[in-house]
Structure formats: structure tokens, C-alpha cells
Design goal:
Layout lengths: L14 H17 L4 H9 L24 E8 L3 E7 L41 E6 L8 H7 L43 E6 L6 H4 L17 E8 L3 E2 H7 L4 H20 L12 E5 L5 E5 L14 E3 L16 H4 L8 E3 L3 H13 L33 H10 L10 H13 L1 H4 L6 H21 L5 H11 L3 H18 L1
Antiparallel strand pairs: 1-2, 2-3, 3-5, 4-5, 6-7, 7-8, 9-10
Helix pairs in contact: 1-2, 1-12, 2-13, 6-8, 6-10, 6-13, 8-9, 9-10, 10-14, 12-13
């Protein structure tokens, strides 16, 4: 196989790629008569990782607000403000930067005016984003803050909390009963989390004066200390991207697929986001210009080890999540009382179905747009707006089934994702009128080997490669065949 040993530039292929591909081939042929899907998962589950941590070279830095250079505000929501940020490299290469521009320095002397914003020459000067939570009722102790805002830490990395009190410690009590969410390409990573005094940042008096502490605003009602989350700085939100761009049908399908993969990952870990909307989805672009979608903002999530995805709804005071417009029917119509339980296992998948309208260039039918607005509490499936003819029939069918009122009839995120995977890359195997399991295994074998080689030869940061890795890492016999039958039936009806 000499042609597979060099790329277009003549660079030798790294041995691990061939070793991994050979290992996959060996495993598949060994298990072909029993459980081939386990073999695919064994290889791909460890390779399906989130993008590189932008603070990976700063192992024990970034746990104090004073270390960061704070730039302009990126946005604000109902509970936090987000700013661009960076950790400057000290000239002598040692210790933390002590520049007077760093956030937090001299804040006690700036009650009359705001900290001046840094003005970088390039956007790349701020690779990070800092989310400052607004602390109105959690008190000023770190323990109380973390207890009150612990849901924001669900997507935190293992090292994110190493210095949450301003000093590194190996012994730390768990935050609530927070589930541990493994990294995923379509889920945000919180790479640093710590508590600190609230600084006076650019735009504070204009955008959120009421939540400032008394030391900064005599009329403020906020506490003097709060939680800060550090993440990668993304170019825009999905809403912003769609405002200026109109992705074609294939690109739109790829974007919907990414959201389904992210939601499936959450469900597998017993987490419900409960606030999915285009403002809570961030976008960057891979080397081919394909939008890479990342689900963020976990402040409303359900991530409790003791109850999983089934929330006892005993009274109206129980929090059902945020964004009532995109709250699934089984959630919004639930009546509180003894024995009532809300099952969130397919609630986020329903929200993806609604967001898919926006991705495909239409108005979200569940937002306020005049008389045509639908309410998740009362809509009928036949009231859903028709999708454009350019949308493939299988994509239209997936969206229709994601928006079924009855969760028992609704597609799971996994099956829906499988349909889109097959739609994008499975034409060769679906062309057979008498598809058999051994044909499917052979196709999976070829696709998986090609994915491994592309990952080593072309670019590890391609959306297409990452999505194929998600597909192989989560293969399940029943889910895959359910997707195949659904896709073939959809095509037969449209044909």
C-alpha cells in the first residue's frame, strides 16, 4: 500500500495511523460473526475528543482573575456577562504577568470610572472568553457560590477546578451531585473556573449596573464575589452566523447533525441542557470553512446523579429549565403534584428540531412571528411550516419526527443523527435493494479505515472527520437499523 504511506506533499505517514487502522481491521474481522459494533466503539471512543485546550501550555496558570487581560464585552444574558480575554506571557517567562492592564488590579480605586478596555491589534490577541456570573443571592463565600452556580461547571475539564479558591488544592469536595461530562467536539469546555472579587469591567455601568456590588455602585444589589468561567473565544453565536449566512442544504444538514451529536452525548451522560437556542450555540470554522457548532451555557441544565433525566415535579416551584418558547411539550404541559415526573430524555432533541428551521433559513415556528407563531404547549404536528424543496426528504422527515408532541413517537437524538450520517455518507450501501448485515459491516469497515487515515493525513480539525468519529464511537445495532429503515422509507415515499 505505498500510495497510502505518503500525503500530497510526500510526507511520510505517521506509523500510529497505520497501526490504528490495522488494529481496527483486525478487530472487525475478529468480531464480524458476533458483535462488530463493539470493535468500532473500542477504537473511536478514545479518539473522539474535543478541540485542543487553549490553556494547555499554561498548566498551573489562569486560576486567578488578576492573571487575565480583559478586552471588550462579547455579550450578556440574564445571568452573566462575557468578555474577551487573554493571559499575557511575562517578558521574563516566569510567574504571572503583573501589567496594570490586568483585570482586578486597582479595582478598589475605580468606583467612579470603568476599567479601560484593551485595544489589541488583532482579534487573535484574545483567544479566551471569561464569563462573569452575576451574584445576587448566593452570598460571598466560595462554597456558597459554587453550590448556587454548580450547573455552570457541568462541562468543566478535570483541571478547571484545580484552583477555584485562588490556590491549587488536590482535595476538593464535589460540587453538588454534579455529573461528570466527558469532552465532546460539540460541547463547550470550561477550562478554568474560580471565584474572585467582582471587578469594574468595560460596559458595566451601561449593561448591568444593578447587579454590581455596593463597592462599585451604591445602588447595586450584587455580592462582592462571584464565579468566573474561562472558555475558548468563538467568533460568533449560531444566531449571529445565520443572520449573515445562508448555508446550503448539505452544510445545513451537517450543522443539524452536530447539534444532534452534542445532545446525544448529553443524554448518554444523564444531562439535559434545557435551554437550547441559537444564542446558546457557538460557531467557529474548520480548515475547509465548515461551521463547527458548540453547545454552551449550562446554567439551566439538569445534571443530578440522584435523579438522572427524570425530574420529580412535585410543585410549581421546581425549576423546569429556561427558554419557555423551546420547552418540549411534555415539559411545558406537565402538571405539578405528588408522583409527577418529567422525563427529559428527548426534550433537547425536540429543541434541535425547532432550531433546524433557523438553520434551514426559515423563522423558528415557536418564536413570536405574528399569527403563524406556534406554542409548544398546544401546537399540532400538521401546523408545522413546510420546509423548502431544496431540503432532502430524509432531513425533512427527521425534523418532523423530532417535533412529534408524543416523546414515545419522537426520534431520539442518536437515531436522528444516524439518519443524517447515512444520508450524507452512506449512498453506496443504501443503494442496495436487499441490504444485509454483512454488507453494512463491510461498509462500516471501509468508512472507519478511511476516517482514521483522513484523521492522520489531512486535518484533525475537520468537522466531517469529527462527525464520522462520533458516529463510529456510538454505534448500536438497533439504533443503526432503525435509522436505515426510516431513511429508506422516507426515500420510497418521496420517490
Amino acid at each position: 500500500m505505498p500510495a497510502l504511506c505518503c500525503n500530497a506533499k510526500g510526507t511520510s505517514l505517521r506509523p500510529p495511523v497505520l497501526v490504528l487502522a490495522a488494529s481496527l481491521l483486525k478487530n472487525i474481522f475478529f468480531f464480524v460473526n458476533c458483535c462488530p459494533f463493539c470493535s468500532f466503539q473500542t477504537v473511536f471512543v478514545r479518539k473522539n475528543k474535543a478541540p485542543k485546550n487553549p490553556l494547555s501550555s499554561f498548566r498551573w496558570r489562569g486560576f486567578r482573575l488578576e492573571e487575565y487581560l480583559i478586552g471588550q464585552p462579547l455579550g450578556k444574558g440574564c445571568s452573566a456577562a462575557v468578555y474577551e480575554a487573554a493571559i499575557p506571557s511575562p517578558p521574563d517567562g516566569q510567574g504571572s504577568a503583573q501589567s496594570s492592564h490586568l483585570a482586578g488590579e486597582g479595582q478598589q480605586d475605580r468606583t467612579a470610572g470603568e476599567q479601560p478596555a484593551a485595544k489589541p491589534q488583532q482579534k487573535e490577541a484574545f483567544p479566551l472568553a471569561i464569563k462573569m456570573m452575576w451574584n445576587i443571592s448566593a452570598g460571598s463565600s466560595s462554597e456558597a457560590i459554587l453550590d448556587a452556580m454548580g450547573r455552570e461547571l457541568v462541562p468543566a475539564t478535570q483541571t478547571a477546578l484545580a484552583g477555584e479558591y485562588g490556590a491549587v488544592s488536590c482535595r476538593r469536595k464535589p460540587v453538588l451531585r454534579r455529573k461528570k461530562l466527558q469532552p465532546h467536539p460539540n460541547i463547550i469546555q470550561v477550562i478554568r473556573a474560580f471565584t474572585s472579587s467582582v471587578p469594574l469591567l468595560p460596559g458595566a455601568f451601561t449593561d448591568y449596573p444593578d447587579v454590581l456590588p455596593l463597592s462599585l455602585n451604591p445602588r447595586g444589589i450584587g455580592h462582592s464575589r462571584t464565579l468566573f468561567l474561562v472558555m475558548k473565544n468563538y467568533p460568533c453565536t449560531l444566531r449571529q452566523y445565520l443572520r449573515d449566512s445562508s448555508p446550503d442544504a448539505r452544510l445545513s444538514t451537517m450543522m443539524i447533525l452536530q447539534l444532534l451529536e452534542g445532545v446525544d452525548h448529553l443524554v448518554r451522560h444523564g444531562v439535559a441542557h434545557r435551554d437550547l437556542k441559537s444564542d446558546n450555540i457557538l460557531v467557529e470554522f474548520d480548515s475547509a470553512g465548515c461551521p463547527w457548532l458548540v453547545i454552551t451555557d449550562f446554567g439551566c441544565c439538569l445534571a443530578d446523579d440522584s435523579i438522572g433525566l427524570r425530574l420529580p415535579f412535585t410543585s410549581s416551584y421546581v425549576d423546569r429549565g429556561g427558554n419557555g418558547c423551546l420547552m418540549a411539550p411534555e415539559v411545558i404541559t406537565a402538571s405539578p403534584g405528588p408522583g409527577t415526573v418529567i422525563n427529559y430524555s428527548k426534550a433537547d432533541a425536540w429543541a434541535v428540531g425547532a432550531i433546524a428551521y433557523e438553520i434551514l433559513g426559515l423563522a423558528n415556528p415557536f418564536y413570536g412571528h405574528g399569527d403563524s407563531t406556534l406554542e409548544s404547549r398546544s401546537y399540532r404536528e400538521d401546523q408545522l411550516p413546510s420546509l423548502p424543496d431544496r431540503v432532502p426528504p430524509e432531513v425533512r422527515q427527521v425534523i418532523k419526527l423530532l417535533l412529534q408532541r408524543d416523546p414515545d413517537k419522537r426520534l431520539s437524538a442518536r437515531v436522528a443523527a444516524n439518519v443524517l450520517h447515512l444520508s450524507l455518507w452512506g449512498e453506496s450501501v443504501l443503494a442496495s435493494k436487499t441490504l444485509k448485515p454483512d454488507q453494512m459491516v463491510a461498509w462500516l469497515l471501509c468508512q472507519s479505515a478511511a476516517t482514521l487515515l483522513l484523521d492522520g493525513l489531512v486535518d484533525k480539525s475537520r468537522v466531517e472527520t469529527k462527525m464520522k468519529m462520533c458516529f463510529f464511537a456510538n454505534l448500536d445495532y438497533e439504533d443503526l437499523w432503525a435509522a436505515i429503515f426510516l431513511l429508506l422509507a422516507s426515500r420510497n415515499r418521496s420517490g
